[in-house]
Amino acid sequence: MKQYDDPASVDRSTVAHIAVPPAKRSLVEIRQLEELIPADVALPQAVTVLRPNEEKDCDLVAELVHDGRLRMVFVMVHHEKYPIRVWLDAMGALNLHTGTVAEPVAPVLRAAAKAIQQEEYNGLKSGRGKDAIVQLVRAFAARGYPVDPELWARAYFAIGGYFGHAGTISELVEEVRRGVRHRVKPAYREDIYDILLAQSEDTGEA
Q1: CA-to-CA separations, 165 to 61, 125, 154, 171, 172, in angstroms, rounded
Q2: What is the mean pLDDT of each run of 10 residues along the chain (206 residues)?
Q3: Most CB within 10 Å of its CB: which of 8, 68, 139, 195?
């Protein structure tokens, strides 16, 4: 709010160009959206979200979009490395800077992300959650998939994952890419890639 109210605010200048006239405009904190949009309401107006970065804010925006409560959203991204930009790509959002939409996540990668999601209850930073991530990344790398933190975060976001867990996934993938040796217990059979590929083909997604 303070940044927006500053006369020299870039946020204010941006909103002035893309949003409705001031008389019809409401400015609220991102977290207030949950209170302002009832669970059974699909907001008909477009909403401009300015530089969301905190996990709670990003998770709320994602939840409102997935629930259909936010149907038209413009998100101003502070930096391309911010997780919200990866989430937007996973959602198939139009990048107004480039005029492009990111490639859809491969079905087999979505299947791998769902397998990771099933381990969330024990946490992903250690134990079986960590074992699952490292084994899957290695299995996919053996099949030619890049060991790319953003690729795996995008796959996880594509199946509705939370920002905090996406950060953990990205960190572990980055460690694998750097060559960090992880001692992990097998979480899956050695042919896990083939199993996930068959699953995605059975569902007609491949």
Answers
A1: 16, 9, 12, 10, 11
A2: 69 76 78 90 89 93 95 89 95 94 96 96 92 97 97 97 97 96 92 95 68
A3: 139
